Amino acid sequence: MSRDLRKYMRDTNTRLVVGAILLLFIAGLGLIWLIYGFGAAVTGFLCILAAFVPIGLIFLVLFGMEWIVKRANPDDK
């Protein structure tokens, strides 16, 4: 029985990221809505989206760099 530990790690990391984002949106914005109302929840949502812009740009740059390196070195896997 052979286990692919890299795939397991990748799947676990993906589940952790998705869970954290869902917790942030559902629990965080839900509590803001419950305590402060709809307007504050919309403002919180916009702030969360604004915070994801630089994070997304960083991941985009890293993905682009990885793609360039893989194209430059086709022998490496």
In short:
With 77 residues, this protein is mainly alpha-helical. It has helices at residues 5-36, 38-72.
Overview of the molecule:
By secondary structure, the protein is mainly alpha-helical. The chain has one domain (5-72). It has helices at residues 5-36, 38-72. Helix 1 (5-36) packs antiparallel against helix 2 (38-72). The chain is elongated, with a radius of gyration of 18 Å. The mean pLDDT is 92.
Q: What share of residues is helical?
A: over 70%
Number of helices: 2
Strand content: under 5%
When the domains are counted, the total is: 1
Main sheet record: none
* Count of β-strands: 0
What gap, in angstroms, lies between the N and C termini? 24 Å
Runs with pLDDT <50, length 5+? none
- The overall average pLDDT, rounded, is 92
User: What does the radius of gyration come to?
Assistant: 18 Å
Characterize the overall form: elongated
Task: Please state the structural category.
Answer: mainly alpha
What is the H/E order?
HH
Element layout with pairings:
Blueprint: H1 5-36, H2 38-72
Helix pairs in contact: 1-2
Q: What would the keywords be for this entry?
A:
mainly alpha, 77 residues, 2 helices, elongated
